[in-house]
## 1
Amino acid sequence: MSANLPNLKHLQYLLALYQYQNFNRAADASFVSQSTLSSAILKLEEQLRCQLIERDHKSFVFTPHGEEVVKKARQIIVATTELSDYCRHYGTPFGGNLRLGSIPTIAPYLLTDLAEICQQQLPDVSLYLREDTTENLMRMLADGEIDVAILALPVPQHSFQQKVVGRDAFYITGNSALINKVKQDPDYHQLPQHSIFLLSQEHCLSEHAVSACNVEDQGLIHPFYASSLTTLIQMAHYHKGVTFLPQMAVDKGVVSQKDMALEKMPDDMYREIGLLWRTTSMRQRLFLKVSQLVTDLLDIEKIHKS
Amino acid sequence: MSANLPNLKHLQYLLALYQYQNFNRAADASFVSQSTLSSAILKLEEQLRCQLIERDHKSFVFTPHGEEVVKKARQIIVATTELSDYCRHYGTPFGGNLRLGSIPTIAPYLLTDLAEICQQQLPDVSLYLREDTTENLMRMLADGEIDVAILALPVPQHSFQQKVVGRDAFYITGNSALINKVKQDPDYHQLPQHSIFLLSQEHCLSEHAVSACNVEDQGLIHPFYASSLTTLIQMAHYHKGVTFLPQMAVDKGVVSQKDMALEKMPDDMYREIGLLWRTTSMRQRLFLKVSQLVTDLLDIEKIHKS
DNA sequence: ATGTCTTAATCACTATTTTTAATCAAAGAA
DNA sequence: TTCTTTGATTAAAAATAGTGATTAAGACAT
């Protein structure tokens, strides 16, 4: 019935070749000789009965078909690695490496606390942290480069397991006069031109803030976009404008300038925080535990606040 | 970085062993000797560093952990088989074997037409049909035993790709006097005790019909449940009761008794028909084509009807 | 008790596959 | 030119998979 399936090692070599686009470097990275890698690819092509790369005497390119095969091969290797890891840590489900990714508007304010709590509650887990954009983290999650992502929801269509771990309220900060104005009448359109400062496009926080406050009007928003929360605050401060901050950043005291006002926004303005992992992962128990820890963390901050 | 992954062949042997629960039979089914299979399992256990089966001198049982490994191994083998199939039929995306499953209240009325249209529109596809319950078909889909399922929606939580292909109206048929009564006043509670006949539990049609008509009242429903639509009709006929039929069955003339009335139910009483396939499949183009064919089929019947 | 089955594990051996080191030919670069 | 870098090729070595025969241990009938 089922046919002659390719060798997993060969699929790994294929992935390395795709990554390095060079036989020698791919071979080095795989700790095998160049000829091993070369013949593995030939063997794969023979076995699958289709051309994966187009050879051009000196160099090569992947065929469109070859790229599809790479994608699928990656899925297979990820799944098998999951199996292997699962077995290696059987008996200690709350152990092993945990590669966790988060976005720049969460990571600095949540992960230090999380790391500390993990060390207490999950002493056998080795935590590896990674900070990147939502988009990149999703790719890394799919490719098995990280195990869990902590993101601001909602996240574009995906097929991961998702667990909501809490809400993170929005705050408005900046020039006291402007803040007071808005505090009395929460209509942002009364603000001066270019007085709202935002993070650059790739940060989902801007999106959330804009949609939460109905300030799509480009005139209000300053055309220069900051690349981190700290520069964002400094910009708003320097130019006497306002900006939006998530509660977890506020709690960590990112607003230290004395002449800056800070107001919590209405209760319905918040972002949801969620944990994501591969549906196929075999470590759901650990991830659920971690999501509980994060939930507790967010709750504690909230209680502490009130 | 990534470890020493198990051999796919070994995983296949493990699946065979799980299926047959016997080394000799599993070895035969895998076309290898018993010693090969035995050492493959040992090798796997050594490589994964965990016990998969508990040996009891003469026989064995899978450990709970071993069963988890089997599940994951099945995923891996399915994915790799998809890869292999995809390559084998590269260039002819509308070719190859198509193993399609459907439920007993759809299959007999839809699949003959579908088979005919497939032969015309997809001459290079070899269609294999399979009839079973929703639950079993979902398992078979997950395990790669079939490629697509045509089911009545909604289907319990799942992680398959789903495409709605049409609506199938409900009809009521049976004793003319009862049907007339209901026709004038669509309250089913006026019907005599035990006058509503249904299919047995495992057919989702009953569920849909019951929830569509609000006849949860057990008194109305006859305690004997039919196991197919034709026996269902005969039961309703013989006992002068009524029953519900899907339009596709009606269109195929399942109600031939002269003294049986047949009425279409209100427009909002229908079941949705959907195609499901593995999200991981590499043949989405084919499946979308097939779902289009089914959509057309259901539409044509509808037009033909009106 | 005794012999016969059936079970999975083990052993010595062979066949196959994978990997290697060394070499080759082609294309650029210095 | 000469040197380097590219991937392919070769033959030999190493690793792995597979085989048949054998073993040990329980099940079961006589």
Note: Residues 22-24, 34-35, 37-39, 42, 55, 57-60 of chain B lie near DNA strand C (CB under 10 Å from a C1').
## 2
Amino acid sequence: MQNSVKNIFPNFSNELVSTIEENGSQQNFEAGTILMRTGQYIKNTVLILKGKIKIYREGEDGGEFLMYYLQPGQACAISMICTAKSEKSQIMAKVVEDVTVMMIPLQLMDKWMMEHRSWYEFVIETYRSRFEEVLEVVDNIAFRSMDERLEFYLKRHSDACGCSEVKLSHQEIATELNTSREVVSRLLKKMEQRGLVKLNRNQIELLNTNFTN
Amino acid sequence: MQNSVKNIFPNFSNELVSTIEENGSQQNFEAGTILMRTGQYIKNTVLILKGKIKIYREGEDGGEFLMYYLQPGQACAISMICTAKSEKSQIMAKVVEDVTVMMIPLQLMDKWMMEHRSWYEFVIETYRSRFEEVLEVVDNIAFRSMDERLEFYLKRHSDACGCSEVKLSHQEIATELNTSREVVSRLLKKMEQRGLVKLNRNQIELLNTNFTN
DNA sequence: AACCTACAGTAACATTTATCACAGAAGGAA
DNA sequence: TTCCTTCTGTGATAAATGTTACTGTAGGTT
């Protein structure tokens, strides 16, 4: 079974995998689906088996701001920590590539934390790594200018997909960085002149992966 | 005993309090001490009994950026989560008001999580609330302009100290918001003209607490 | 082909924020 | 008092980013 919990989460113990399969419900969602909105109550923890989910923050004026992506083998840190007293979500979660997820009722969290060592470790590690990721996001917006942030953004994307082509329109990039399309176009053009990228319709090819880092 | 663990952390069980007092070491640090630097290894979890610690991010160019403050009854989320494999710190921690802290070896974390329900709940809650706080910080820098951020900053400060006077120089504020002193002076002046604050040397008096919120 | 729509490029201008330069005021120390 | 240091105010200017407006182009549809 390609997308089994056992394969995607190899560190989970066998009992844990069984428990998950007994208590969780596997579901599919199409790209574009919004799985969670700011202010909604969280009732489930989500384990990603397939596809990609975007976690972002929404401003009052409707602006977006990308926090990070969730991919197979990962889980939504926010949803994991909201313990028994199902808290309100502080973020938006949108499916960007058709996903298969395992939904697990929040009530089971505390119980599993005590009973399953591998679950405990997974939760702690998830939280730690997301915290770090968010700190890095803060760094980027606090200390860097838009051109650096754009480079960083492209690099993250190409790292994630493992290829050097980023298939996004300027508008999409602008939205995730909470800036305007014109700014992105301008900066990309400058990067092209510096020989860092090659621009095509709906696609940006990174020529020199080791720029800012 | 005024600054006892029992008083400052009322939710801890009696056994937990004893265990903490047995295994932790109580220490004092003066204002100005840097307790943790970016890149250092974390070997202890820190519970704050008295005083105030500033948690901030440092940019490559030396710029600062305030994340949040730690006060009595709180603990450093970062240090709590770095489990057994003592991780590197991603942040800076500086004492801003003389502190008394309880240092607890990291090795005990996992053990206590399993053995002490009240410790488990404390850790989870600490992590949850810090995550939210950092998300709010992201919001501020991603979606708001400097004048709004300044208002928010002042409000946080007056909330924290419970009084309407913020005793900080423009330079200190500028540093924490990673901007320049002149910008802060100018914006404060505008706020004064709008009747929101009264400016004095090393002190800003908030006149109208309910501005942006 | 003719048409339509989404995407990309770019100039001109507005706004925000950063930087430089300098002056004055408050408060402490000699 | 006089001197010194720190803090604050403010103008002038630069740089970065956001906004408006318009053009062209690629690709799909009819």
Note: Residues 145-146, 179-180, 182-183, 201-202 of chain B lie near DNA strand C (CB under 10 Å from a C1').
## 3
Amino acid sequence: MPELPEVEAVRRGVEERLVGKILTEVRVREPRLRRPVPPLAPWIGRRLLRVERRGKYLLWRFAEGTLLVHLGMSGRLAFVAPDVPPGRHDHVDFLFEGSLLRYTDPRRFGFIAPLDADAERAMEARLGLEPWDERLTPAWARAKVRGRRRAVKEVLLFGDVVAGAGNIYACEALFLAGIHPGRPAETLDEDDWARLLAALRALFEAAIAAGGTTLRDHRTVAGEAGAYRGRLAVYGREGEPCPRCATPVRRVVQGGRSTFFCPVCQPPERTAW
DNA sequence: CTTTACACCTGACTGC
DNA sequence: TGCAGTCAGGTGTAAA
């Protein structure tokens, strides 16, 4: 589910209500997430200083230590009234001085883990730059993928150039930039990267403003669906007319995942297949 | 180094 | 209705 805009919508909502508050209680009903939920008792009594986002990861910065939260494919965080009984997939409750933040995750692909300095360094080494990082220039991106013949769409998903794009926004950004998803990453010149980076930034900004894209699971922490879905140009629209040229949108499979694109607005040139 | 395969889970949908 | 098969917004590991 959640890509950068959805995680950012959750980050803002959590920060708004919980910064400065103390974690007073944790209830773990189902510890079997993608990684087992660690003992959280030591975190009780700690004050939450701020909530950061890095790619699709949430970093809960406490006065002592950091908790890393990832929502996986179907994870949600939502504020609920303290007397609402938990449902089948409501795995963890966090109580902060009367506010109940509930973690729900039907597929259990998400995780909650302490993040020490070493683990954070390892994460930083693996992860690409934030879309708005000043170091993320067309020249930097081009150098980063030198020698990689892998398709640009798969490189976007891997997230080691730009962090935060998943399947929806990778497809949408390539459409906005007019770049064929199958082009080997190393064939993009600086002009291509300039358009692609600009497209990603504009797309993420618009999607964040709309509260993200809800296909199925995503909700803001207030429980509202994200409104960006209706603005998707190609994702999930196989056979429908391209909004720019009316050519039917095509679907192909790359790395086992669906890719949607317009064969006219995103001309093939040199493709990976 | 790169690429591929697969594993982790449940639920929604399609076709028979 | 039911049942089997397919697909889904994401990592992370192992093997080739």
Note: The helical segments of chain A are 4-18, 117-126, 138-144, 152-158, 167-177, 190-209.
